[in-house]
Design a protein that fits this description.
The complex is a heterodimer.
Chain A: E1 10-21, E2 24-35, E3 39-43, H1 50-57, E4 65-70, E5 73-74, H2 80-86, E6 87-90, H3 102-107, H4 122-134, H5 150-163, E7 168-172, H6 180-197, E8 200-204, H7 208-214, E9 217-222, E10 225-230, H8 232-235, H9 238-245, E11 249-253, E12 260-264
Parallel strand pairs in A: 3-8, 3-9, 6-7, 7-8
Antiparallel strand pairs in A: 1-2, 1-4, 4-5, 9-10, 11-12
Helix pairs in contact in A: 4-5
Chain B: H1 15-44, H2 52-60, H3 67-101, H4 113-127, H5 133-155, H6 159-183, H7 185-195, H8 204-231, H9 235-240, H10 245-267, H11 273-285, H12 289-314, H13 322-339
The chains are: A alpha/beta, B mainly alpha.
């Protein structure tokens, strides 16, 4: 990682944001800076507002108050197309239309760069080919997305977001429904993208240990607020896990990466 | 498989994309040829046997004294024009409705738009004494537009809600129509002819009055095609790719009003064409609306006009209305589509 000596610049900043659905407020007065060129993981218990925050920052959900700044510019004031050229998002609610082929789906990531009718240029073709290759789905280009396994499908969606060629990529639980091997595989892919292209990666994750291993910057949320943030080694303590998740746990060093490894205590099945 | 970039050669598109384009051209040419054949059949065939030479003369060297030529000009040309226009409208509107609602069984009937048009016609006949086809046209149009406005403003563009509101409106309007017709036999006689989906009886006047609405509707459909392609992946993905989803829904609502209004005004409440045509087009060229809409616009008149021609030949010395035949043809096609792989392919 080409980490500069000084504090990294802020890629995305939420400033006093309030977010909610149909009058029910989920997040109120939250301020958060996400460092540029780094991998940030947002973790927290179910319904803590982490996905809501991600949606708000990506302008998928309108802010009720506050603002979101992308490279210092107010996101709400930018034309959507321009925003889509700077900020890529993979929401959880993506639908692969029946019969759509892998290459076709990935090519749709080029939409914000194209004219109104979406005519393909040779640049588009090159970018799509590269996105297919870097996500390891080039061999599947001709296959219908519906026929792929969960792991392959998730790679295809990420390829679509990469084809968007944005400096910042937000992903909402990209490893959900994947087995552990595919989770590691996918996170390695995102880490590589971050290292090789300097892409700012921000993802909501459930798996604490993988979040601690892959994130440069870890954000812990609970009840609509950020309760801790910083380097995973500093943030993910036994107290933090108890505070955010209400879970008694031991935190030991991960034998592979040296990052915190959270081992839950639980009420049963302890070694006598 | 993929084009190698290592050699530094110019990158060709992924084959899946290029093959899709070649297929589109093939399908468009094929559909245009079939449409031309159906138009020719519509001019040549009918209850009255007329020699092809007479049809040709009627169109290009008209002799006012010839009864045959008069039949061609007064009856066959108008119904062919009507079938073409209404067919294009139905093909486009079905595609737009299925796209914007992400619902594979959506059509103007499901959204309550056709029933709305029917109610307006019944009101016009039984309370306002409207009897001319051209009078029906405007009421049908207004009824369709009003129903669409109601459904879209209550349904607030959420796919499931739209379908529910449409179903509720249909359920409400249908018995009201029945009630009004049962009270007034004269109105019933007028209405049933309109309601059966016939291409006759509404002359070129109707076409002349309505073609600008159709034109705007078709232009809107073309503008919507790339947007619907993204919307198919979900609202959030469409937004993430830079689309203002509300603008898409607004444009779609306008297109649906114009197209469904035109189709219903011209041909009556024709069932199934708007539903079946997009599925057939999807089978032929895939799910991208930029490819789907032009194919659907060609297949719409093929099905409607084709049904009209078949209806003229199937009963000796008489005719079956296009709407009836379309329903007979459309239902099996829909079953075939449902049994096939791409059933929910919206």
């Amino acid at each position: 990682m080409s980490a500069p000596a000084s504090e990294p610049a802020t890629a995305l900043r939420a400033e006093g944001v309030r977010l909610g659905y149909d009058g029910r407020t989920v997040i109120d007065g939250l301020t958060l800076d996400l460092p540029a060129g780094r991998v940030t993981a947002i973790v927290g218990p179910n319904a803590c507002g982490k996905s809501t925050l991600l949606k708000g920052m990506a302008r998928l959900l309108p802010l009720e108050a506050g603002r979101v700044l992308l490279g210092g510019r107010d996101v709400a004031a930018m034309p959507r197309r321009e925003l889509a050229r700077l900020l890529g998002v993979l929401p959880q609610s993506s639908i692969a239309p029946d019969g759509v082929r892998v290459a076709e789906l990935v090519a749709r990531g080029r939409y914000p760069h194209q004219g109104w009718f979406g005519r393909r240029s040779s640049t588009d073709d090159a970018v799509v080919a590269r996105a297919l290759e870097s996500t390891g789905v080039a061999d599947l280009a001709e296959r219908p997305v519906a026929e792929l396994s969960g792991g392959q499908r998730q790679r295809v969606w990420i390829a679509m977001v990469l084809a968007q060629q944005t400096d910042v990529v937000l992903l909402d639980e990209p490893t959900t429904y994947l087995d552990v091997a595919h989770q590691v595989d996918l996170l390695d892919l995102l880490a590589t993208q971050n290292e090789e292209r300097g892409t700012t990666v921000v993802m909501v994750l459930h798996e604490l240990n993988l979040a601690a291993r892959y994130a440069d910057h870890l954000v812990v949320m609970a009840r609509g607020s950020v309760v801790a943030e910083g380097a995973p080694g500093d943030v993910l303590t036994e107290d933090a896990v108890r505070g955010a998740f209400g879970l008694e746990a031991r935190v030991v060093p991960d034998p592979i990466s040296g990052t915190p490894l959270v081992v839950p205590v639980g009420r049963t099945r302890r070694q006598s | 498989m993929l084009t190698s970039t290592a050699a530094g050669a110019p990158v060709a598109g992924p084959p899946a994309l290029d093959r899709g384009r070649a297929r589109l051209v093939l399908v468009l040419v094929g559909a245009a040829m079939v449409l031309a054949a159906v138009v020719a059949a519509s001019l040549l065939l009918g209850v009255r046997t007329i020699a092809p030479g007479q049809v040709w003369d009627a169109l290009f060297h008209h002799d006012p004294a010839s009864a045959d030529q008069s039949v061609v000009l007064r009856l066959r040309v108008p119904r062919t024009v009507l079938g073409l226009l209404a067919g294009v409208a139905l093909g486009c509107v079905g595609t737009v409705i299925q796209g914007v609602t992400r619902n594979p069984i959506a059509d103007p009937g499901l959204l309550g738009i056709t029933p709305g048009a029917s109610l307006a016609v019944v009101v016009a006949v039984s309370f306002l004494g409207v009897t001319t086809p051209l009078g029906f046209v405007w009421f049908a149009f207004a009824g369709a537009a009003l129903a669409a406005v109601v459904v879209f403003s209550i349904g607030r563009a959420q796919p499931v809600r739209l379908a529910l509101v449409g179903a509720a409106l249909t359920a409400f309007v249908t018995p009201v129509i029945a009630l009004l017709l049962l009270r007034d036999l004269n109105a019933f006689d007028q209405y049933r002819f309109w309601a059966v989906g016939s291409l006759t009886g509404r002359g070129l006047d109707a076409a002349a009055a309505l073609w600008p609405f159709l034109l705007v509707g078709v232009v809107l459909t073309a503008l919507l095609a790339p947007r619907l392609t993204l919307l198919a992946m979900g609202d959030d993905v469409a937004r993430a790719l830079g689309q203002d989803v509300n603008v898409t829904r607004g444009l779609a609502a306008a297109a649906i009003v114009l197209l469904a209004g035109t189709a219903t005004a011209l041909a009556g409440p024709v069932a199934l064409v708007g539903l079946v045509v997009p599925h057939a087009a999807r089978r032929l060229v895939g799910t991208d609306y930029r490819r789907l809409t032009p194919v659907a616009a060609l297949l719409g008149p093929v099905v409607l006009l084709g049904a009209d021609v078949v209806g003229r030949l199937i009963v000796p010395n008489s005719e079956l209305e296009a709407g009836v035949v379309a329903a007979f043809v459309g239902a099996p096609v829909l079953v075939a589509v449902a049994r096939g792989r791409s059933v929910a392919g919206v």
